[in-house]
Amino acid sequence: MIEHQQAVGCKKSEPTAYSLQPYNIGFLSMPLPLSFILIFLVSACNNPANAPVPRKGIVTMAPHLTETVFALGQGGRVIAVGSFCDYPPEVTKLPRVGGYIDPNLEKISTLSPELLIVPGRDRKVGEYAEMKGLPLLSVNMDSFASIDAGIETIGKALNCVSEADALRARIRRELDGVRNAVKGLPRPKVLIITARSSHALHNLYTSNRSSFVSEMVECAGGENIYADGPTNYFAGSKETIVVRMPEVVLEFHAGENLDAAEHTKFVADWQQLPSLPAVQNGRVYLIMESHALRPGPRVGEIARILAKRLHPEAAIPTP
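Structure (tokenized):
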């Protein structure tokens, strides 16, 4: 442009301190500083350092889900777990991201996992995962059928279908072994207590036939007195318990570190209902195993433990 002006005899203008000299090179036909800015922006966009960080690893938000992933041989992919996960032992060395009720969503987002596996569905977690573009797998496991289906779902998601099929087959064999061992034996009426809030026998939480806890009792040769309950888990009453006359009380204290005195106290509490056959015959049992209420790979093991309580005379198979 300047050279053209001089060639036709035009007076050359003096550039001011703020004038911008253009270049005529495609998109660079614009003021010099602006072209440099665009070059910088294009370079930054093409810089691998500014590319999205690839997601890697799995976060599991519940103990039974963590156990399932490890049982499928995928434990090496787990980068963080929920607050209550404690099995297998190597899980204790992994970072914690809160529980399902109170998840540390920011920490989960920072970890940028390739998959977040949660129990059931929670709107808060679901909305956050969608907002952050976080891959989410919701798995409901609260019955024998849904445990089996959940393992299958996780196996497909983690690309280990054959391992999932093998685990499902193993669990079915274990449960069938317990059923066969108690087949034909009298089935005592069982009161299942999944939790209670005091030694006064208030707020006695139990389960109906749809829950895996009741299914374990049925598999072990017992009859749940609350099989017809309104929901999977609910509060029973002392009055209905007395009417239904359980012959055995199975009270779950899964993972609680009760000393001998506390254990004795919990059993003695049932003397408040002396008319119960379970109390009269000394058949109140506390189930202490940490995984006793986990709907996962070890349900067969818990079914064996319950069968030994309900039918000490039976030859319960070992793993």
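The first strand starts at residue 58 and ends at 60. Strands lie at 58-60, 78-81, 115-119, 136-139, 189-193, 204-207, 223-224, 233-236, 248-252, 284-287.
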